[in-house]
Write a structure and sequence with these properties.
The protein is of the alpha/beta class and 406 residues long. Helices cover 45% and strands 18% of the residues. It has helices spanning 11-14, 32-48, 52-66, 76-82, 103-115, 129-141, 151-156, 158-166, 181-195, 212-235, 250-256, 284-287, 325-333, 343-357, 363-378, 396-402; strands at residues 2-3, 6-7, 21-22, 25-26, 72-74, 87-92, 120-125, 144-150, 170-174, 199-201, 241-245, 265-273, 289-293, 296-300, 336-342, 383-388. A hairpin with a 2-residue loop joins β1 (2-3) and β2 (6-7).
Length: 406
């Protein structure tokens, strides 16, 4: 498939380029000392990603420890309720061990850390799913683990904080700024700059300096590969559309990358939060502009001084000021359509999926569910595949306290 002169049959081999760019987005904007650490990671990854031993071990882990492949479920009752004849399906990453897609790249990153002889993994987390996944990977491989988390998210995501501590991780509460995901990333980067010789920073999404947007995409690509094969096996055809939520963008890149070369519409859904006014949402690809943050160039939300703007979402895993450089590139060339869902729509979808299908989704995933329901109402026929990136256990106390039962 060719799209705006981009050959998608060879896309994954050609993007990013040798310097980590997807078009003009990506790259690595770091101090010389930290850049040397990134170069070490890049060289190690390029070596082991072609290693039969590494690939075989990762496949064994996915099969025997993670529970992959995760299934696809047909949302028959919800589809019937919408009533247009369009059929909704979900890729069940909520059934991946630890309850979300994050373990797909965390096990790979921890395996890379072991290969490099590192003693510690460290990372940021928002909703806590990446933190839980990395703490799980660290326990599996016998590594130390430090997780940086904004104080607001620590309170919202108490169950995941408890899981990280039980798994042996050290949770460092960040009290700077808005005390959410951006500040957690800032603190994790600062810690890594002081300890990069013995540790590796395991970024939680397709963001950050090269090679992390590529590494995380490559490890998440399994979601798209599985989903494409499963959907064809279930229905005999491809879905008409694939929908996934976008914060940093790891779950969406994972499933989208399985369908780049197919005549399938791809929709990335950002959090509109409380509305379009700056500070009330985290929809960077919809309302942002080009800028450099956390060591990479992408689309970001800026304040009047050109600095990273405050962001908000009911879903802690989506309240990031920027988005992955590959998403910015896919937006520019038109391969993925990006749109928004607000808090109320996400909460409604959370309860609708729970009550109609017996699946309690994460608030992040609820944004994708909400949009897919709206999309289905505009389509006369066809099918929509939603990436259900995580389960909603972590969100239940917060939702009941703030929204009650609907």
């Amino acid at each position: 498939m060719k799209f705006q002169n981009i050959e998608f049959d060879t896309y994954l081999k050609n993007y990013p380029d040798a310097n980590g760019y997807f078009g003009k987005y990506g790259g690595s904007y770091l101090s010389p000392e930290l850049q040397s650490a990134m170069d070490e990671i890049t060289a190690a990854y390029y070596t082991i990603c072609k290693s039969t031993k590494f690939i075989s071990e990762l496949r064994r882990i996915r099969r025997e420890f993670q529970g992959r492949p995760t299934p696809i479920s047909h949302l028959e009752r919800l589809s019937d309720k919408i009533g247009t004849g369009v059929q909704l399906y979900v890729k069940r990453e909520d059934l991946n061990h630890t309850g979300a897609h994050k373990l797909n790249h965390c096990m790979g990153e921890a395996l890379l850390a072991k290969y490099m002889g590192k003693k510690k993994v460290l990372a940021e987390t928002g909703a806590g799913q990446h933190g839980v996944a990395l703490a799980t990977a660290a326990a599996y491989f016998g590594l130390e683990c430090d997780i940086y988390m904004g104080a607001v998210d620590v309170k919202k995501q108490a169950p995941n904080v408890a899981r990280m501590k039980i798994l042996g991780a050290r949770v460092i509460e960040v009290t700077d700024g808005l005390q959410t995901l951006k500040e957690a990333v800032d603190a994790a980067f600062m810690a890594y700059s002081k300890d990069y010789k013995d540790s590796i920073y395991c970024i939680g999404s397709v963001v950050g300096p090269h090679p992390f947007p590529m590494i995380v995409r490559d490890f998440q690509h399994v979601v798209g590969v599985e989903a494409r094969e499963q959907f064809l096996g279930m229905t005999g055809e491809l879905p008409d559309a694939v929908v996934a939520c976008v914060g940093g963008g790891s779950n969406s890149i994972g499933i989208f990358s399985g369908f780049y070369n197919d005549p399938v519409d791809l929709y990335g859904i950002e959090p509109l939060g409380k509305g379009a006014e700056l500070g009330n949402h985290a929809a960077s690809l919809t309302y942002g502009e080009e800028g450099v943050m956390h060591g990479f160039n992408s689309i970001m939300l800026k304040d009047e001084n050109g600095e990273p703007a405050p962001v908000y979402s009911v879903a802690s895993g989506l309240d990031y000021t920027s988005s992955g450089p590959e998403h910015a590139f896919l937006r520019d060339i038109g391969r993925v359509k990006y749109d928004v869902v607000d808090d109320e729509e996400a909460i409604d979808a959370f309860f609708e999926l729970s009550k109609m299908e017996g699946i309690i989704p994460a608030l992040e995933s609820s944004h994708a569910v909400a949009y897919a329901m709206k999309l289905a109402r505009t389509m006369g026929k066809g099918s929509v595949l939603i990436n259900l990136s995580g389960r909603g256990d972590k969100d239940m106390d917060y939702i009941l306290e703030n929204y009650g039962i609907r």
